[in-house]
Amino acid sequence: xxxxxxxxxxxxxxxxxxxxxxxxxxxxxxxxxxxxxxxxxxxxxxxxxxxxxxxxxxxxxxxxxxxxxxxxxxxxxxxxxxxxxxxxxxxxxxxxxxxxxxxxxxxxxxxxxxxxxxxxxxxxxxxxxxxxxxxxxxxxxxxxxxxxxxxxxxxxxxxxxxxxxxxxxxxxxxxxxxxxxxxxxxxxxxxxxxxxxxxxxxxxxxxxxxxxxxxxxxxxxxxxxxxxxxxxxxxxxxxxxxxxxxxxxxxxxxxxxxxxxxxxxxxxxxxxxxxxxxxxxxxxxxxxxxxxxxxxxxxxxxxxxxxxxxxxx
Length: 313
Fold this sequence. Notes:
Elements: E1 4-10, H1 14-24, E2 30-37, H2 44-58, E3 65-67, H3 81-84, H4 106-116, E4 122-126, H5 131-139, E5 147-153, H6 169-173, H7 175-182, E6 188-191, H8 193-196, E7 200-201, H9 203-210, H10 215-225, H11 229-234, E8 239-240, H12 244-251, E9 256-261, E10 263-265, E11 276-278, E12 290-296, H13 298-309
Parallel strand pairs: 1-2, 1-4, 2-3, 4-5, 5-6, 6-12
Antiparallel strand pairs: 7-8, 9-12, 10-11
Helix pairs in contact: 1-2, 1-10, 1-12, 4-5, 5-7, 9-10
């Protein structure tokens, strides 16, 4: 059985960069067909540039990067430079990317690729706002047949939000897109704050990563050393590692557990905009539309991350 074809939809972003490196370090398991970029942590021009910089660091300029939507479906763009720095990659030595963006729009690439794919073939790894995926599903609902699963980082149920008291950032940026994707009928797995807040980048774990002995380990350790904003807010000894949970789940799902539930996204105005309303106890009897992950073996996750990153240059 060959490597699973995946497309990474992303808004790099410090933790996005680590997730991309994580995926590229396991080519026997994950066949990264492309990166599609979206505005989120920083504007689209920067996320598209950062994606190509990360590919350069991984020695994988062959992976195409398609730029996608510059803003949400309905509302104005909200970004997170206060977390990821003005460049989006605080802690990374930046350079001009060695490759150009691939020609064409990310949404068109998604539509064409999924239409041409065998049935239930491609896994979409969504690490940012869901604008590109929603736009593709709205324009071409038939592409759902080519999707094996959508594994996304976003949302919160048992933990508070990280951008408002109710909402997690990726969902809050484009709640309307999140609602489209989660209710698309495609198989959905959600890695929310409930999971990622268990995966803390403590000083001891950062040191282990930095001691891997390769460039990738030093790069990831440098990123994590500059990502202290959430640790301060949470009053923990390390910041949560959000987006890499998606790749960890694909590589070793037995480290994660959860429940098939109904999830709805609040798209109205007010204090709860972007909240993910999770029917954990099935009180509404609405049909389940997602696998919601709420438990992670954090030590097992970091061992997997370190073992995998060690394969990179």
